[in-house]
Design goal:
38% of the residues lie in helices and 22% in strands. The protein is α/β, with parallel strands linked by helices. Strands 5-6-7-3-8-9 form a six-stranded mixed beta sheet, sandwiched between helices. Strands 13-14-15-12-16-17 form a six-stranded mixed beta sheet, with helices on both faces. β16 and β17 form a beta hairpin. α9 (213-258) packs antiparallel against α10 (264-289) and α16 runs parallel beside α17 (485-491). The mean pLDDT is 87.
């Protein structure tokens, strides 16, 4: 039986000395589907790397404790494909694996052309979803005893997401994974690992519960709410008692101060009375020591778009008529017609490689030149918009003006960046932190048209509900490519599936149900 043991693992960032995880222990057995959740930058990916490739931690993170995986073949899907592998052809990417004989027929439900495995096409030329599918195939061909998956849902189309849910639920080996996709987590996880950083990211804390994600969230919120109610009532009752105690103490003390020496009997009575009063005060202090703590949890992020980002409902954003959508010499779709007005929240869905990002880029090139709109762009590849050597504050306040810099610090603080993270190179941030940074830039520049390519792909399931609420309330126009089913249902007013024959309307309410 494949059992993975993690014993008293402690992970410490070398540069800052911040502890990400302290004394973390876990035993994973077949049938376990353990999801790691937590805010961006809390060490989720680092935890997976400590198990699968501890040697890669050396440059930035110290590691203590033990990972017992002797004799186990660990299948590790990193969040990003290394640059050296991106440059390889698809055929060379599969060298050394007998992908056809090793894989179950169920894997072909991933829906791609099997001939692609022997293609000379570079891995880098594939769509984001096609890359993930190729990497999953290569990983599973090695017949791993344990699966470690870091954001396996990134860029997968909805059909592939549903396949992945089915695959995880049927997996015969232990699975430890990080995912932003709440629907997938709700449908697959039976063990929840929650990494927190409390007291302004100075104290690490972890919670491990064998339960579903929905039950964990529900019981956690209910428990925290009840604990806070009881704790605050205890303190309110204590304050009332202490106010009354102080009144009695002051009165007895005053009586002691004014009584004359000619009344020794009265003095003795007041001395006894004061002793009883002080005894009552000590009893109250002992009761205080038994109070429940007010819950100390990692604060939720805060994000909202200003009213100045609104667009009138009748405002024309685009009337696109496109006979052909192409990428290089490849025809992706014909007869695309798209009419979008102010305030619409549009999602483009479709299979991997259908051309969704190509269409969104085309719209960006059109709208960025408009003088009557303030369009903002969030690419799927963050490096297209971010200079890794810049800092978050520098990126948000390039003018260097005091008021701009203050706004940048305030905005980053609302997204739970530490002061250190605000001033470190962007290249050192997590994928989720980069996503937050891009969204904050769109907010601060008061864009009234947002073009978002997979906006929730690297955000934690704890941050995503806040981001969805902010975007749902946004008064401008949103044009987005997404496979996030909760995002589609909660944010979008219009959904189009991109097919070879153009855009097909879909009903938003059909997506995002996590039951």
């Amino acid at each position: 039986m494949s059992v993975l043991e993690i014993q008293k693992l402690t992970l410490t960032l070398r540069e800052s000395g911040r502890v990400l995880v302290r004394d973390f222990s876990l035993s994973l057995s077949p049938g376990d589907r353990a999801v790691v959740i937590g805010e961006e930058g809390n060490g989720k990916s680092t935890l997976l790397r400590a198990v699968a490739a501890p040697e890669t931690l050396e440059p930035y993170c110290g590691m203590e404790g033990a990972v017992k995986a002797e004799g186990l073949q660990i299948g590790y899907l990193e969040q990003e494909l290394p640059a050296a592998l991106r440059r390889r052809s698809v055929a060379s990417f599969f060298e050394g694996t007998d992908v056809y004989r090793s894989l179950s027929p169920r894997l072909w439900e991933l829906d791609f052309d099997p001939a692609l495995i022997q293609s000379a096409q570079s891995m880098d030329s594939l769509s984001g979803g096609e890359k993930v599918k190729m990497r999953l195939l290569r990983l599973l061909a090695s017949r791993p005893d344990v699966l470690l998956l870091d954001e396996p849902t990134n860029d997968l189309d909805i059909e592939a997401l549903e396949w992945l849910e089915s695959f995880l639920n049927a997996a015969e080996v232990p699975v430890l994974y990080v995912s932003h996709d709440e629907t997938l987590i709700e449908r697959t996880a039976n063990l929840v690992i929650h990494l927190e950083q409390v007291r302004k990211k100075t104290v690490p804390r972890h919670i491990v519960e064998r339960t579903t994600y929905a039950d964990y969230v529900r019981r956690r919120l209910a428990g925290l709410e009840k604990q806070e109610q009881v704790a605050r009532k205890q303190r309110a009752d204590y304050d009332r008692k202490m106010e009354r105690y102080q009144q009695i103490f002051n009165r007895v003390e005053h009586e002691q101060n004014v009584i004359t020496r000619q009344d020794p009997g009265g003095g003795r009575l007041l001395k006894k009375k004061m002793k009883a009063v002080k005894s009552m005060g000590r009893r109250f202090e002992r009761e205080r020591e038994e109070f429940l703590d007010i819950p100390d949890v990692e604060d939720a992020i805060s994000l909202f778009f200003p009213d100045s980002a609104r667009l009138p409902r009748g405002k024309r954003v685009t009337d696109l008529i496109l006979p052909e959508l192409t990428a290089g010499n490849r025809l992706l779709a014909r007869d695309i017609r798209l009419n979008v007005s102010g305030g619409e929240h549009v999602a483009f869905i479709g299979r991997n490689g259908a051309g969704k990002t190509t269409l969104l880029r085309l719209l960006w090139e059109e709208l960025r030149e408009r003088d009557d709109l303030r369009a903002g762009w969030m690419p799927q590849n963050y490096e297209e918009a971010l200079d890794g050597s810049d800092t978050p504050v520098g990126y948000l306040a390039p003018s260097g003006k005091k008021e701009d810099t203050t706004r940048a610090y305030t905005g980053l603080g609302s997204l739970k960046f530490t002061h250190e993270e605000m001033n470190r190179p962007i290249a050192m941030l997590s994928g989720g932190q980069k996503a937050k940074l891009l969204l904050l830039r769109l907010l601060l520049t008061e864009c009234n048209v947002l073009l978002l390519d997979e906006p929730t792909r690297n955000l934690s399931p704890l941050s995503n509900p806040v981001i969805r609420r902010a975007l749902a309330a946004y008064g401008g126009t949103i044009l987005s490519v997404t496979h996030d089913r909760k995002y589609i249902r909660e944010v979008c007013t219009t959904v189009y599936e991109l097919t070879g024959d153009g855009l097909v309307f879909r009903e938003p309410s059909a997506f995002g149900r996590g039951e």
